[in-house]
Amino acid sequence: MEGRIRLAIADNDAITLAALRDILGRRHKALDVTWTATHGEDAVARCLDAAQRPALLLLDMSMGEMSGPSICREIRRHGALPRILAITSFEPGVYAAKAARAGAQGLVVKDSPALIRRAIGVVLTGGTFNACSPSVSFEDSEAAFRRLRKTPAEGVGRLSDQERSVMDLCMQGLTLEEIAGRLGVAASTVRTHVRRVKEKLGAKTLAQAVMMVMEHRYE
């Protein structure tokens, strides 16, 4: 849709996602909701793909498998676009500082369509938006990118896709042998992945590593 501003929405609540898409896509002719995502890794992949990258991403802070701040940080480490507006159904103070540290350009509550529209306008023009937590300072996307690109991935952010898959299955309660069968690899390969995960996270046991991954996802 030529001439319209590309917008994307990431939220693991399908009802909220549909409502936001309706409010923003159908009622605002200048906006084109090009895609939506319910999973964090999908949102990251699309934002890093130049062909799918929107001008602005509305990002829920309480995504399920991967936390909102983690998604935001991963996107921002790779570039200044898209601009990111964090959204939440919780009290803003819960996520404001985390969103700012992760490179978002603002935070707004989901239950105020008027405030969301206002925030979108501000962020799209290069500004930052924070009507809820005055003690927190947000950066524009360029400044956030300059800060975060200098910071190497830490902790869970250093895990490979295969290591993440192993940890996902560990959190589901599978044994290492069962994980090997699920992934179609040898049990020794799974044990190697576990050893590397523990080394990267500084964990002494697999149980500790699992807890660290869970804390990262729901931070």
TrEMBL record:
Molecular-function annotations in GO: DNA binding
InterPro entries, per the entry: CheY-like_superfamily, Sig_transdc_resp-reg_C-effctor, Sig_transdc_resp-reg_receiver, Tscrpt_reg_LuxR_C, WalR-like, WH-like_DNA-bd_sf
Residue stretches making up the Response regulatory domain: 6-125
HTH luxR-type domain ranges (all copies): 152-217
Pfam families noted in UniProt: GerE (PF00196), Response_reg (PF00072)
Keyword match tRNA processing: no
Modified residues (4-aspartylphosphate): 60
Keywords: DNA-binding, Phosphoprotein, Transcription, Transcription regulation
GO biological process assignments: phosphorelay signal transduction system; regulation of DNA-templated transcription
Protein name per the record: Response regulator transcription factor
Organism: Bifidobacterium vespertilionis
